[in-house]
Amino acid sequence: MRSSFEKQVISKIPGILAMLLEIPENQVRILEAQKDSGLDFVVDVGEYKFFVKCKSSSTRALLYPAVVQLKEFRETSGQDVIPLLVVPYMGDTGRQFCDRHGIAWVDLSGNAHIKSSGFLIHIEGRPNRFKKAGRPPNIFAPKSSRITRQFLIEPYRSFTQRELSQATGLDEGYTSRIIRRLEDSRLIVRESQGSLRPYDPDQLLDAWHEAYDFSKHHIIKGHIAARSGDELLHRIAAILNQNGITYAFTGLAGAWLYTHFAIFRIATFYLKEPPTKKNLDALHFRKDEIGANTWLVIPNDEGVFQGVAECEGIVCVHPVQIYLDLKGHPERSKEAASRLRQECLNWRQDA
Q: Are 27 and 60 in contact (CB under 8 A)?
């Protein structure tokens, strides 16, 4: 049974392709795909056939399984076949993802990128006609993401569902629901004996990174006197250790401890409990967003502390968490994230 979005695509795609290819719409025919092919339908346009997959969103987690299937069709089909992805609106991340894998796409908002032998069609800049109030279900929501974090902390290990539940502190029913959605997105795979592992750790991290929003944590910005970022980092850690406060550094300071790349000014650290006045006084912390060099972060889920470790005697979150958090930082955060991924999260090279 077709989804409402597939029905919408079938009604609109003949007109869209006719306009893009500058042919009469009556020359565009919708055909049923072969059973069990994984395609949603086929479009016959004279000398070309489009093998179509429809997705209701252009998030990487949803696009990934469709792109994998379309690449397989492209490798086994002739030059007259064009695998085509159709979405309501193709965002920047989705465009980059499709471009990287050489997959043609159109959206129902009027944008397109189709490259084949003999022609190139590229249209961009049309606004999203399908914006909706609220947010769609997110497999990378704060609590749900504990599952993904555990997979990425031990990317070569296969987990049973019970092991994941125990490692993350989530009940088995909740764990089962998240696992099912990760499987549906082809971000994890179930092995023959039933255990689970990432299909591709890089793809899993990319999908999470796209959805991640550091600003959703409670961030208290202020200032602590120090001559350098390194001095600031060690001063804060010493005071927190002396006062028995549970913490873990992240962001630029955390990346520095793992890679010693990119001198930093801002020291960011998670606190398991909201700081008391006594804690802030011990740190000599002055709350002030202007010129802030210290970010105290109260996490929106305690899962950020999964995989914490000591680096040079200072507690840090796992490199996976640091990589995500750098997305919400200024200064040389992009460079720091790139180096961290290269040195600590380079799974393809390790494989």
A: no
The closest of 149, 179, 148 to 162, measured between CA atoms, is 179
CA dist 311 and 207 (Å) reads 27
Report which secondary-structure segment, H or E, holds 281: helix 277-283
DSSP 8-class letter at 326: G
Q: Is 273 helix (H, G, I), strand (E, B) or coil?
A: coil
In the chain, the amino acid numbered 114 is: I
**Domains annotated on the chain, with CATH:** 4-123 (3.40.1350), 145-211 (1.10.10.10), 215-350 (3.30.460)
User: CA angle, corner 155, sides to 348 and 153, nearest 5?
Assistant: 120
339 near 256, Cβ under 8 Å?
no
DSSP SS3 for 82:
strand
pLDDT digits (tens, 9 = 90+) for 272-313: 999 999 999 999 999 999 989 999 999 999 999 999 999 999
pLDDT for the residue 350: 45
Cβ proximity of 301 and 277 under 8 Å: no
